[in-house]
Amino acid sequence: MGMTDDDYDALALKYYRRGDFSTSLKYTRCALELRTSLLGEVHPKTADSYHLLGVTLHSMGDFAPALRSDIRALEIRRKIFGEEHLKTAESYYSVGVTQHSLGNFLSALESSTLALNMRLKLLGNKHWQTAESYYSVGATHSSLGDFIAAYDSNRRALEISLKLLEGKPTKDDSSTGPTQLVSTANNYYSVGIIQHSQGDFSSALESIKRSLEIRLKLYGEHHSKTADSYYSLGVTQFSLGNVQLALSSNERALEIRQRLFGEDHPKVADCFYLLGLVQQDKGQFSFALSSSNSSLSIRRKVLGEEHPKTADSYYLLGVIQHYLRDFVAAVESKKTASEIRERLEGKEHPKTAESSFSLGVRQHRLKDSDAALESKKRASYIGLQQSSGAQQNSDQRFLSSRANVEADKSIDYRGGFLVLNGFQLVCPCGAIGRTDDSVSIKIALEEPSTHCDMIVANGLENDVMFIAPVINLQPNGHVFNKPVFVTIKLDIDSDSDSSPDDVLTLHGTQAGGGKIIWENVTSESNLDTEKKELKVEIKTFSRIATFLRLTSILAKDVVTRVNLLGFSYTLTMLFKDNHPRAPFAELALAFMSHDIYHEKCYRENPSSVLVKLKSDGFEEFLSIDKPESHLIYNSEILKIVVEGQHGHFLTAAFCELDRCRFVRRLLRIEGSILNLLPITQKLELPNEVVHEAIQCWLDDDEQLKTILQHWSMEQDDRENDELVTLRDALQEFNPEDVEVDERGKMHINHLRELACDIHGLKRKDHHLKEYFTKEIGNLCDSILKDCCIEIDADAYTENCPRFLFFHKRVTEDVAIKLEQICSFSARSIEKDFLNVVPFLIQAVKEIFRQSEDEVIQNGLKGLHTEIVQQHEADVLKAFQNEDILRLVYEVCKVLQNLCLNNCEKYSCELIERWSDSLGIWNMSEFLKAFFQSRQENKLFKRLQLFSRSLKRFSADIRSVRKKEMRFFYDVSQSLIRFATFDPRKLVRFEVTFSDSSPVTCYSGALKYDKPHDTYYQHFWIEKEHESKLQLGTLAHVHLDGKIRQVGAFKCVVLLPASITKDLNSWQIPVARVKIELTDSGSKRLVLYSTRRESISEALRLLQREFGYEELREQAAEITSCHLDVRCTTEALGVMRLRLSYKWRSEAIFVDSNDFVAIAEAAAKDCTAQIGVEIALPSTARSPCDQNGNFVMDPSTTEIINSYARQTFGSVEVHLHQTIQKGHVCVTGNNTSLHMKMPETHQSMVQSGLCTPFQKP
User: Fold this and answer.
1) CA dihedral defined by 93, 97, 98, 101, rounded to 10 degrees?
2) Which residues of the chain form CATH 2.60.220.30?
3) Whether pLDDT at 481 is above 60
């Protein structure tokens, strides 16, 4: 029996789900052929086959036949089901997806929108098919350049998808069926794609990873959906900057797709395209060129020349060709991309603008000025058109002008009301006392213009606007027994997007001198948004002003600006009686807010000033604490003078501390430029607040104030004091996370200075325009290059804005404008500069973060203090005189001195010639090996830039601006810091401990004794146990281009068992000997000494004695080892140790009263015992005198002179003492020996440094 159409259809679906599209296509055509012949064209099953045929062809990348099948399925379903049916919606969706793949975006948008509307009506907004349609519409909007509509559609799709995923099974749920897992994997994949499109790359990465894990379980490695997940994972990893991971994921996707589809498939082309992007980012331009060519070739073959993705491949190819410096080919590729995009997407599409501008840059590079200008004009025109289209009308509508009107009425205890032009005043019964006289009340509506001075004078014109006349209730100051109610008619646009919380009501009372003091009564007001009425409850007649807040400014900040705001304080006096230790007592004044003083946690906190004073012996005897009478207004200062009985005075001044100063003091960053982004993250504020703060680019305090205003709005409902809450939120914050380093501050000040000059320009002048154009371009170019160097780019990075964009330091829009500015191609460079200044300043803040310089032992012999000080003075003088040539000369002198200090093989004459010819490049290249830390490497790159600028300096010295002088002065200062002698770059001491000696060690700074060419360092070892303490000491010395270990020497010698002579009776002339028995019966002899020559001599003596050939010096290896020191006391406490190293000596020297060097000390018992360590006297270069006596090196002794003076009554005693430290050991039959003692001026750092023994 043959197969039916349903059998073929089931097989087609089965193989489609497996990813075997070729087999699925075969069975789909069989099912379609049978259904057409048996059921006819107009049948639901025939439509289903056409639909499956279109989906399969689309998956195989054959879009044109797929579209024909989709359209045929749609026509049949419309005839059978009509417009409002799920099957019809499904066909509309498939048609839209295929049209999008073909680049027909307008048609795709129409089809996708129809599908979305049907699904919303039939399925609602909580179904996965609705989310699918929302995403399709969003993707098409994005391709059309309508990013706002795309974001809205993607946001709705994400909300639905996330809702559907709640409670969904995961890959680890073994009870879950395959169908549920398929749905879950697809939903996670869709969510990841949407999250990526919205820029939420971290969430997208997590979602796509989950989809990949489930699909691997369902389908295995070799499936198209698994490949889709791998590819999307790679795209997201690339967006996050994980280039290596992106490369791995994309290569896996490429391998699967090539295996499934072959070479000529759109998805294979996508993989090659992404591969080219990743390789380009890694700097592998040759590989990137091959990948982009492969992508272009496939897309031209499969999609045709007129397709957006083909244009993308042309564009990428042009970028890579530019990096490979093939500018002619780059121009051709960019031109082709621009023409395709203009034909397909129109002249006003962002990608068309991108292509046009990039093409202009390349043409400019080829000196084709006319073509370059035309391309850049076209790009600028597109950007201007988009800007104009997006510009919203920001004009605020004020109330129409009307004359001041009044009304009056007499009211008694029975109450009454008064109405005037829609405004109503109601006095309830009892508001006036029964025995009181009637009150003649008047209501006057005053023009807002007569009160605008109070908002303009206080800088509030952009923050608030009047939405009602100012109501003057008379008699001013009259107090009622009960609250009276005022109804105010508001003038608010019905289509305004303002919320009721934006309405602010102030109550103003008359004060002395004609001033009005305003207070916030918004909380006593009730707003009816439908009637546009505000009902205010008051007890005192005065003025009422109603505002609409246009920004996020706080109500209390408005009140603070428009009038005097009282700050209640508490003044505490504390007294300390110093008698009888001192003739005077002490008085302390503590000034704080009334709320803080009464906060229990503050009064008991050990860090509070009250607790600190009391712990120091002060007693609190008086507190002035009356908040209703003791007020300081705004920035007023409270000055207190205390006069003592002996005529002495104490003067103290106090004022209120605002939140900005509080935060700065809390973070210990007063007066510094700050990167406030970490603070917004710490306070968990939204991105909108960050963007608003960035716009306050002129002043960091204004940025901080904006951040704190938004934060404070979220604290309104909390009971805790704001400053206390703010302190708790930021108390563990690291100041280094927000502080900008000196170089960053310099760049920010330069940007602010230039932006202020441009912003303050009130007239048009083409000369000024030309001047500012050059200033902007040069400044941005130098700052961008320095930013790239700071994030470890090459000093000659060509396209710095793009580099910063790729590293997510600026957005793509900002990067494009910066490209235009630096190439002087912007249509309005001043306007573009002012637009990007806030974002460029923020990028500088994030890049130039304060950090400690890392010291690497690079072997640099720096310049000593007196030379460095002279260079600093000369460089400063050149900078103050704005003498750039003198500054260059001083830089060359610094480099010359460094080169001369570190030249080993080079001729000094060659270095001097470099300096005379201002060869900064040659000298910095000569010193390149010493620039090893990250900061030093950046200094090297800046010196290269400095060198490149010399030609311009010499050609036109007037071209050097003051900003450039500051830039190079900063480089000069960095060079001087680098050149300053630092002993840590040459020597590093190391102290190690044995496992049985648990101790705590502290070390002092490494120091250098220049007269004796000696390095030394103090160590303090805290001994906590009464056990033997043994340490290993070592010096790491950078010598002759290598780091060598200097401590002591050892040699291991194996003696055969055939040697039977007793070693115990043999004296070996080294400092320390260890003899052990091995398992084979031989003897292991270990020799220790601080001198290599001593061990060599010992080997020669042993060889002569035993005649054993293996004891030759050439056969035994003498190696460096730690110099072991042993504590001489078992007492507990802190032991002192000083390690010294004389330059180019063989060993280090130990100076301590608490430790003795095992490899140097002389032992009393010179008899060797098997398996026991013995210590022998250290030998000199000639170990024996002419009589055969053994003599210890006299350099181990030291003469120390001391002097003291004491007075006993009328007698003065002078004590002179000469101490010989160490001893001379002489052994042999005839021990008479005359020796010359070392000079008394020999210092401690010289002694014991293994100097050769000189016979008298």
Assistant:
1) 170
2) 406-562
3) yes
pTM value surpassing 0.85: no
Do the beta carbons of residue 201 and residue 239 sit within 8 Å?
A: yes
Taking only the tens place, the pLDDT of each residue in 707-759 is 887 887 776 544 456 667 777 778 777 777 888 888 888 888 889 888 888 88
Q: Three-state SS for 324?
A: coil
Choice between 156 and 815, residue whose per-residue pLDDT is larger: 815
Helix (H) or strand (E) holding 1017: strand 1014-1023
What confidence tens digit (pLDDT) does each residue in 903-937 have? 876 678 788 888 888 888 888 888 888 888 888 88
Tokens of 82: 């009509």
How far are the Cα atoms of 86, 115, 155, 948 from residue 123, in angstroms, in the given order?
A: 9, 11, 19, 67
DSSP string, 911-950: HHHHHHTT-HHHHHHHTGGG--SHHHHHHHHHHHHHHHTH
CATH 1.25.40.10 in the chain, residue ranges: 1-123, 266-387
What residue has token string 């006095």? 427
Count the helices and strands in the chain (H runs, E runs).
41, 38
Upstream peptide bond of 475 is cis (omega within 30 degrees of 0): yes
When pLDDT is cut at 50, 70 and 90, the band that residue 296 belongs to is very high
The residue type found at 395 is D
Q: Does domain 266-387 sit in CATH 1.20.58.480?
A: no
Q: Are 1027 and 996 in contact (CB under 8 A)?
A: yes
> Residue 245 CB: number of other CB atoms within 10 A?
17
Higher pLDDT among residues 1227 and 871, named by residue: 871
CATH code linked to domain 1-123: 1.25.40.10
CATH architecture of 406-562: Sandwich (2.60)
Residue ranges of the alpha helices (H) in 731-828?
742-759, 766-790, 800-806, 812-822
Give the confidence band of 1160 by pLDDT, cuts at 50, 70, 90. very low
Residue 633: closest CA among 712, 716, 538, 518? 518
Length of the chain measured in residues: 1256
Instruction: Provide the residue type at 232 as one letter.
Output: S
Torsion on CA atoms 999, 1005, 1006, 1011, rounded to nearest 10: -130
- DSSP characters over 196-208: HHTT-HHHHHHHH
Amino acid at 698: L
